[in-house]
């Protein structure tokens, strides 16, 4: 016999409640009163008990701002049973709880059928929806009434097929509210990245943050993304995460051409462990120096082999009074005392510098480099707040 739908169970619970039968409430409260998180972990609730829990949560005086499945039972069953609560919440934290394409389909259907849903942020990181589940979510994002602003799908076994479905859905919905999309640690493939590029090229696209860390982005795929953004002067994109990919110097040169464009609105670029060397670093530095109207505020170049020669190029950027960088990360970049001296000298010579955070961890500044950096911090004009 099939379990009744959440709606039917809730109706049944309403009847019991009107008859002043509070036994279900008491049973559920017993589970919820257990200490720590995961109150329902290992519990075998009946459909009626699940419905009692839904009723209690929907009628609670507490505002349903955030639903965290880990506070109850990190499982797909918990999601399916508490769907009415999820759709009534503003943020849903459903990461790492075994959600498959079935759970994604049910969630998408519930949100499509509830035009008054409050859900704005959805975190499905570390689940297994795969392409089939992502297609269901794409159908939701295609819906003109969908109000989602942030979707996280990190490490969800998505390939180019699922990525293409997402991009196509967003392109076909000019009224989409989506501003942040996290696709980290998925194998998007050439066609998937091409679809994303086509999305970024669309003047109706309102994405402000795109995360593609560890997505096998090569120099060609990086070039496609950069070209799309260059061709869209009305782009809203502010943050681009390409950490742990392999664009190399050739891909970074394409990104540099983007940063050189006066219409580029990027404020934060992350290129951690991207196989960048002196040549790529020089291209980035040249682009920033030649664009006094650059919006870039944060640049992450950690774990690249920039060396002292690459850092000297960046120092010339920091020396420029037009440079608006506020955070620069150079952890593990093969920097010695010469590079540290160049950085310190550049910042001392630019009293209007905006730099507030500088990360030089895991380099080899030596005693002379440390002295130069110490002298910089003692300078009354230095605005650095964090030096690592």
What is the overall pLDDT average?
Answer: 88
* Proportion of residues in extended strands: 5-15%
By secondary-structure content and strand pairing, the structural class works out as alpha/beta
Radius of gyration: 25 Å
CATH class of the largest domain: Alpha Beta
Largest sheet: 12 strands, parallel
Tally of contiguous helical segments = 15
Can you tell me about this structure?
- 44% of the residues lie in helices and 9% in strands.
- It is an alpha/beta fold.
- The protein folds into three domains: 1-57, no CATH class; 63-216, Leucine-rich repeat, LRR (right-handed beta-alpha superhelix), CATH 3.80.10; 247-388, Ribonuclease Inhibitor (Leucine-rich repeat, LRR (right-handed beta-alpha superhelix)), CATH 3.80.10.10.
- It starts with 5 loop residues before the first helix and ends with a strand.
